[in-house]
């Protein structure tokens, strides 16, 4: 448990710092440019994220939960490289067909480039996470956050260009991957007695790729559907209300990251333990779930109270006085964040059990409700309608995930291993 607490601490520190830097990007854009620029950047993220979510196939999570070592890291690495390349082609096509202006097309593709670099780092993180080496992941995320702020700020201050800022982020993140992420993973491989070439070089095997794809496709659909669901209100806002209204909504909605970072730290750290406990000890599995949910809702309640009483002041200080008029929107988004984080914890538990298709059904339900509610509410209420659509959809998703998790726990063995193969808890690095 000491190693678990240490890893939670490192993961939380990395997520806090990185998420703060991601929020700072929006703050820099809000202060150095216009709400329309913030809206264009948010739209670019909303367009590229579902594509890369599908191509990522949640391989990091699957790799970290692969307690039996069914596939080696080179297989995951090679599969991720191919999928990311295909995703960039898809993003280029989408950019051409969704924007009539050349600047919008270029910004969407540039954002796709730095998100692709992040995707490659993510598969390396999965290898480190499987070995519970969360310190290296957190340090990399901290450096990545600093590079992102510097890139977007330099783009505005030096070039007065969102496109330049996005390209600078891409250059910085690619350099970080080459000189930090991969070398750190190489050290871990060498400690296991393998050569760097044997342990890290991507391997391309059609037969194994087919098996990985079969295993990962439900999780890929889950991530894509969830990403589309979260971004559907943004698409509706861009269509019916314009980039400026989208800019206000996106800047305020991003503040739920303050809640997400806690859940992400917990989920990333306990996923390998969930995988072991699922096969060895149902009581420990349920205990971890209960403690996680209590922590999420405790933090969430505090966030709702703070934003209810100090919302206008918070928005005025973080952005500009114009944002303070949207203070009630901030309270709604805090409630949405609590529900989304609860669903994420349930999803981590189900993923640890390698039960993927039930998550796909839950994610598609989430998407359907979000899309339907956005079509009805956004044209009437703008940014508030977008928040209400997410509130309804996240409540439905949370209830569906809770039911899935309860059914799964009832099927788990009361005690002892469910397999004849010995399972041991990962050794902390």
TrEMBL record:
The keyword RNA-binding does not apply. It is found in: Cell membrane. Keywords: Cell membrane, Membrane, Transmembrane, Transmembrane helix. Its main location: membrane. It is a multi-pass membrane protein. It comes from the Bacteria. The chain crosses the membrane at residues 12-30, 36-54, 75-97, 103-128, 140-159, 165-182, 212-229, 249-270, 291-319, 325-349, 361-378, 384-403. This is Oligosaccharide flippase family protein. It comes from Dongia soli.
């Amino acid at each position: 448990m000491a190693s678990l607490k240490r890893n939670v601490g490192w993961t939380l520190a990395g997520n806090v710092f990185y998420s703060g830097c991601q929020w700072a990007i929006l703050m820099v854009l809000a202060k150095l440019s216009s709400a329309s620029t913030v809206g264009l950047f948010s739209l670019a993220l909303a367009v590229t994220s579902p594509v890369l979510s599908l191509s990522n196939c949640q391989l990091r999570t699957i790799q970290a939960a692969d307690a039996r070592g069914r596939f080696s890291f080179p297989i995951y690495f090679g599969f991720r490289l191919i999928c990311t390349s295909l995703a960039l082609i898809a993003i280029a096509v989408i950019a051409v067909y969704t924007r009539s202006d050349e600047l919008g097309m270029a910004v969407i593709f540039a954002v796709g480039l730095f998100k692709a670099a992040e995707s490659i780092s993510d598969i390396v993180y999965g290898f480190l996470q499987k070995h519970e080496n969360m310190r290296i992941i957190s340090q990399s995320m901290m450096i990545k956050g600093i590079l992102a702020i510097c890139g977007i700020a330099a783009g505005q201050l030096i070039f007065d260009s969102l496109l330049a800022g996005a390209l600078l982020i891409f250059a910085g993140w690619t350099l970080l991957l080459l000189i930090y992420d991969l070398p750190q993973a190489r050290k871990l491989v060498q400690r296991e007695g393998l050569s760097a070439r044997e342990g890290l070089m991507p391997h391309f095997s059609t037969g194994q790729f087919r098996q990985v794809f079969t295993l990962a496709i439900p999780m890929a659909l889950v991530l894509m559907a969830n990403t589309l669901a979260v971004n559907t209100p943004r698409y509706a806002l861009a269509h019916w209300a314009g980039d400026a209204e989208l800019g206000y909504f996106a800047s305020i909605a991003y503040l739920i990251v303050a809640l997400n970072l806690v859940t992400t730290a917990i989920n990333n750290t306990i996923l390998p333990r969930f995988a072991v406990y699922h096969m060895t000890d149902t009581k420990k599995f349920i205990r971890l779930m209960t403690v996680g949910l209590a922590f999420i809702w405790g933090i969430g309640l505090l966030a709702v109270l703070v934003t209810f009483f100090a919302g206008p002041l918070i928005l005025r200080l973080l952005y500009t006085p114009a944002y303070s008029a949207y203070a009630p929107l901030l309270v709604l988004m805090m409630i949405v964040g609590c529900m989304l984080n609860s669903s994420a914890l349930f999803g981590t538990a189900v993923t640890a059990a390698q039960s993927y298709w039930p998550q796909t059904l839950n994610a598609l339900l989430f998407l359907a409700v979000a899309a339907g509610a956005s079509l009805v509410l956004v044209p009437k209420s703008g940014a508030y309608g977008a928040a209400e659509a997410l509130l309804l959809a996240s409540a439905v998703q949370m209830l569906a995930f809770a039911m899935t998790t309860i059914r799964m726990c009832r099927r788990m063995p009361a005690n002892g291993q469910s397999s004849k193969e010995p399972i041991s808890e990962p050794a902390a690095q």
